Structure formats: C-alpha cells, structure tokens
Amino acid sequence: MQSGYTIDLSEVASRVYERIYTDAQECLDRGDETNSKVKHLRIVDEVLDKIIPHDPFAPERGLSGFLSGIYRIKKGRLRICYVGNSKERKITVLYISDTPRKAGDARDPYAVLTRLVKSGKFDAALKNIGWKKLSESYESPCYGSSLLSVSGEITVPPTGI
Fold first, then answer.
1. Which residues pair with 138 in a beta bridge?
2. Is there a contact between 137 and 148 (Cβ–Cβ < 8 Å)?
3. Are β-strands 90-97 and 6-9 bridged in parallel, bridged antiparallel, or unpaired?
4. Nearest in space to 149 (alpha carbons), one of 130, 129, 127, 134
5. Under 8 Å between Cβ of 146 and 153
6. Phi and psi for 17 in degrees, rounded to 5?
7. Three-state SS for 100?
8. Could you report the per-residue pLDDT of 53-88, keeping only the tens digit for each?
9. CATH topology of domain 6-147
10. Considering the entire predicted model, what is its pTM?
C-alpha cells in the first residue's frame, strides 16, 4: 500500500543513518547477517518505510512542551523524531537517536533534540515542509498555531489530520 508521503532526512538524521548503514554493511560484507547492527538498520528502515508513512500524525506519537508538533517513534533504545505537513504529504525526519534514554542526562535524546531545535539546526528542514519561523517559535501550515514555543507554552496540534 502506497502512503503517498515523501520522507526526507535532515542533515543530522542523514549522518546518523549513514553511520548505521555503514556499520551494518560492514557486518553483511563479512557474512554476519545476524549481527545486532544489521538488525538495527532493518528496524530503522522499517520505521522509515512502513511505520511512519502508515500513520505519521498518530496523537500518541506527538511530543509535548517545547517539542510540541514533533512526532516520534520509539523502538527499544531507538528514537526517530520527525515533523510533517499533511497537506503537502511531506515528512522530514529531524533526528535519529540510538543512545539510551535517561531523563536529565545531557545525552538524553530529547535533551539533544531540544538543543538542536533551539540552535536553528533544523530551520532549513522546517522551512522545506512549509513551517514558518516566528522569532523563537514555529508555525505549522497544517495546525496554524504556534509550535515549539521557547516559553514552554504547549500547543497541541489537533487530532485527525
């Protein structure tokens, strides 16, 4: 079944995916098809090719607080965070993390994602899917409300998109 969504990777997500792919390919080249790195790549590919496009804006995948408007899939240690535009049927994967989740830790995937968003690292990716930067918050073309507010204000996108 074709979802009709175009999925792109941000520069940050692309670098992580390339590392995961290279690690898995080295194992495959040695004939080690059961290596955990190969399994990890297969999980990432399944999320990107099947799970996200099937129902990208499922409410249970939405993040909250400063990261409101960003969605994520979690499988074990893996976190894949993305944004989308349902009108243009575009999804942009912002961040792929395979580090352990430990709230309060500087390397916690959501802490890293927050720093990357605040730094402007994803501005081009957000613009590419039609989000407009409004000072230190973003506005989604689908939701029409301020998202990712630096003030910590929560704006939950409507369901059923």
1. 133, 147
2. yes
3. parallel
4. 134
5. yes
6. -60, -40
7. coil
8. 999 999 999 998 888 889 999 988 899 999 999 888
9. YaeB-like fold (3.30.2310)
10. 0.78
Contacts with 140 (C-beta within 8 Å, 6 or more apart), sequence order:
69, 83, 85, 130, 131, 147, 157
d(CA 60, CA 5): 19
Locate the domains of the chain by residue range. 6-147
Are 157 and 48 in contact by the 8 Å Cβ rule? The answer is no
Give the ranges where 34-155 is alpha helix by DSSP (H): 36-46, 52-54, 109-119, 123-128
Q: Up-side HSE of residue 148: CA atoms within 13 Å toward CB? A: 25
pLDDT digits (tens, 9 = 90+) for 6-27: 999 999 999 999 999 999 999 9
Describe the strand order of the beta sheet including 6-9 as a list of residue ranges: 6-9, 90-97, 78-85, 71-75
| Contact of 78 with 117, CB cutoff 8 Å | no
Going by C-alpha positions, the residue among 87, 68, 21 that lies closest to residue 48 is 21
* Locus of tokens 């390339």: 18
- Alpha-carbon torsion, ordered 64, 68, 70, 73, to 10 deg: 10
